[in-house]
Amino acid sequence: MGEYKFQSLLIYQISLDYIDKIYDLIKKLPGEEKYNLSSQLVRAATSIALNIAEGSTGQSDKEQSRFLSLALRSYLETVACLDLIQRRNNISLENLKELRKTGRTLFYKITTFRKSLKNNWFSPVSPRRSHHAGLPTPVSPHRSPHIRLPTPVSPRRSPHTRLSMPVSSPRPLHIACPE
Asked: Which of 108, 24, 41 is nearest to 72 (CA)?
């Protein structure tokens, strides 16, 4: 596996394992939960993998971090579903133990990956990259800090537009419009 970037990510692989364990769990749920809690649990679990995939393909670090945040929210939704299952005594604690362990690992890995992306937002970048990313150019610690501001671009004027008086004049500006 590895045709796409996200397929080689460890967090994606763990999320697939988590989904497999969720499917194994819902087979053990009673019939009355088949279309309610189990459906919600599967949707939330699959959303984890889908957000990891969507955020990693052609996205900036900031955008990928946003999708990882959505994946974390989906994971927490599965935790709430598992709590409900446990509370209603639908599944034994022993059957939930391995699933919760995999889930915690997934949570920590996603959180760590997300933090590493956030740290990249504030790390020095080359002037070329900062130009393309819209970030300020990094400054040497030996110089006073400054931010390069973009050069203001004057609005384009139509060749038919003509000022009737100089801009520095205190009188109002008249613009002749073509008819």
From this structure: 108
